[in-house]
Amino acid sequence: MGDFEYPRPQLVRDQWQSLNGEWEFEFDDEHQFRMPTDPIPWSRRISVPFAPESEASGIADTGFHSACWYRCRFTVEHRGERTLLHFGAVDYQARVWINNHMVAEHEGGHTSFMADITDELVAGEQTLVVFVEDDPADLAKPRGKQDWQREPHSIWYPRTTGIWQSVWVENVGATYIRRLRWTPIFDGYELGCEVLAGGDACPGLAVEVRVWHGEKLLAADSYLLVGQEANRKIALSDPGIDDSRNEILWSPERPTLLDAELTLYSGDQVLDRVRSYTAMRSVSINRDRFMLNGRPYHLRLVLDQGYWVESLMTAPSDLALRRDVELAKAMGFNGVRKHQKIEDPRYLYWADRLGLLVWEEMPSAYAFSARAMTRLVHEWSEAIERDYSHPSLIVWVPFNESWGVPNLTAVQAHRNAVEALYHLTRMLDPTRPVIGNDGWEASATDILGIHDYDPDPERVRQRYEVTDPVRTLFDQRRPGGRILTLDGFPHRGQPIVLTEFGGIAFDPNAPAHHTWGYSRQNTAESFLDHYRALLTVVNETAMFSGFCYTQFADTFQETNGLLNADRTPKVPLEQISAATRNVQ
């Protein structure tokens, strides 16, 4: 990845090296090879971490490929007592060898994994081989927006096969900090800090935690590890007065981060040292309102698919990720709903640092089965563990529009799946709201998300400006032709958010029959007028605790973005921002 930065921004070490760059590559559609010692031709070169379907990879092959091989050679620059090999994401099943010794297997196309390769290293150059299986016809695996047809159609996009996030190695001691988890405890003005040690078991471990607000040291505490783990609360000095508290609170308007350094000791010996950051903020539900830092907060979100024309799901650079966060804010939004994608941690880093709320949504599987749900639970659990500590992340969404559970109204197993994922998510992270199934047919949920693409602003106003929503909206009207709540799960007063609407297509350079949207405008002026009229309605509708407009940028045949696919604005950013915020 160009302009490459440290891939895991909340647990940073100095001694590491990127393995991104040119690798040897081979498709293996017939599954002819099983081991790296087999006579693999290695007839191609690929630029990692870009998927072979992308132009940025140097291959740009969008055909159906069920398996492929990767190989690279590298030298460990600074050996520690242990060397760890990391993969940001490999779609879908990966097996990894170092010098012909298998070191890792992983299933799940959107989450990271690691291997300790210390014992397999040799003097001089190392050989890394990765075998990937990714059946393009398998609808029972979490695949998000990846099309099962050869050419992208409707709302589906090109497939992503193999490595699509960064590969890197780092050097650590025999015992090191393997996991770090931060939990802001707003009511007590405390920070929860969980540290798990990895590597060799070592008696007498302790971790020193230092936390700063700018140049001011807030805490410098030391904790013993019991069973290789420490789980402590760091009490901060609470000024008590809101004006003083606000100096340290995180929000999109004031994204204050607290820098941290953790040092792992055995006696007086330093075993590991990492840099991190966290924030003091809370997200919660109070009756019909979403709350940020104990106050009602109106959500202005934009749906973001996270695709680029030349590089698909992989950002062309770290600067591109930062630019996407900056553009969302410049258009007047205070958050994004990342749609059907577990985004690169570097995006979450920029959302943390620049101040942008993020809803994280699990990529869907589409064929319901016990195997599909087992895969979904496994990968979703890994995503929650990976991203738990990011302050910008405020809502988890395990299902979208009943995808993968299409018979919620009739089949109990489908309903059980949604309820189970809701409760699992709340168990893994009790600090954030969870939307069980976004869009319609809600059961267990903390926020009721409604998808309604009616292009007529006045019809939208009439539909949602009602005095008795339980009777007129939930019992009588069905946006999208779907019931909003399942039988047995009446609306209990949760916040209502219009989580998909708009989708106005506008692309004067493409024939209408080659593009797709929920409605269409043919000039920049009519596009902005239509957007302004819709946003006026949803901003002024008292029922809504917020909204999410579809969508951030054009994505392949979907030309319903506020930005073109290259992120240039279709109309001036300041005009979009004024309409988004309902400012005349």
Automatic annotation (TrEMBL):
Under Gene Ontology molecular function, one entry of this record is:
hydrolase activity, hydrolyzing O-glycosyl compounds
Q: Where is the Glycoside hydrolase family 2 catalytic domain?
A: 319-579
Keyword annotations from UniProtKB, A to Z: Hydrolase
Q: Which domain of life is it from?
A: Bacteria
- Domain (Beta-mannosidase-like galactose-binding): residue spans on this chain: 66-143
Instruction: State the InterPro entries in the record.
Output: Beta-gal/glucu_dom_sf, Beta-mannosidase-like_N2, Galactose-bd-like_sf, GH, GH2_Domain-Containing, Glyco_hydro_2_cat
- One biological process GO term for this chain? carbohydrate metabolic process
Q: In this record, what's one Pfam family?
A: Glyco_hydro_2_N2
Report the PANTHER family cross-referenced here: BETA-GALACTOSIDASE, HYDROLASE
Could you tell me what this protein is called?
A: Glycoside hydrolase family 2
Give the originating organism: Pseudoduganella guangdongensis
